[in-house]
Write a structure and sequence with these properties.
4% strand; three-stranded antiparallel β-sheet; 183 residues; 61% helix; Multidrug-efflux Transporter Regulator, Chain: A, Domain 2
């Protein structure tokens, strides 16, 4: 799926508004597609947020109906949940999310190609490409984690200074930080 490359689509028939992740929309079956308002309520975001995600190329609804109404399939909803997870859990901004989503899209394409071929040399090249995508994604997450660790260290230092002032004792060095256990 290449949602980040084509953020706008024409309104009208199911075939003009569908994408690969929702093959039923290509066939004209709209029964599984969910209206934008229902998706917004389900995910706890505003309709404007969903439209903005589309505007900046993060998500592409399965269907644009005449009048601009949008409908989403399960894959679209899962993608939006992933975007929200990256915002809330990892603290990523939209540029970082775009980078991660694009990498995930490339991984999906590599996986599809891998499954479709039998040439072992080509499969190994695809595995290598996926390995590089994953290591780049890990570097982005590790850089964010390092910034969070640094922030935690600074907070621990300030907390210890205040604790020592309250107790009248010289400050002790900050404890090692861990992202797993909040302070």
């Amino acid at each position: 799926m290449s949602a980040a490359k084509s953020p706008t689509r024409s309104a009208g028939t199911a075939s003009s508004g569908a994408h690969q992740a929702c093959p039923h929309a290509l066939e004209g079956d709209r029964s599984d597609l969910v209206r934008i308002g229902a998706v917004a309520r389900q995910l706890g975001v505003s309709e404007r947020t969903l439209r903005y995600y589309e505007e900046v190329g993060l998500v592409r609804p399965a269907l644009h109906e005449p009048g601009g109404s949008r409908r989403y399939c399960d894959a679209d909803i899962a993608r939006i949940q992933r975007i929200r997870e990256m915002q809330e859990l990892l603290g990523f901004n939209l540029d970082e999310i775009r980078t991660m989503i694009s990498a995930e899209d490339r991984l999906d394409a590599l996986r599809e190609e891998y499954r479709a071929i039998t040439s072992r040399p080509r499969q190994l090249r695809l595995i290598e490409a996926a390995y590089h995508e994953l290591t780049q994604m890990r570097e982005i997450v590790a850089a964010k984690a390092a910034r969070l660790d640094d922030f935690l260290e600074k907070l621990d230092s300030r907390i210890e200074r205040h604790r020592s002032q309250l107790s009248g004792v010289a400050p002790t060095p900050p404890r090692p930080t861990s992202r797993v256990s909040p302070r």
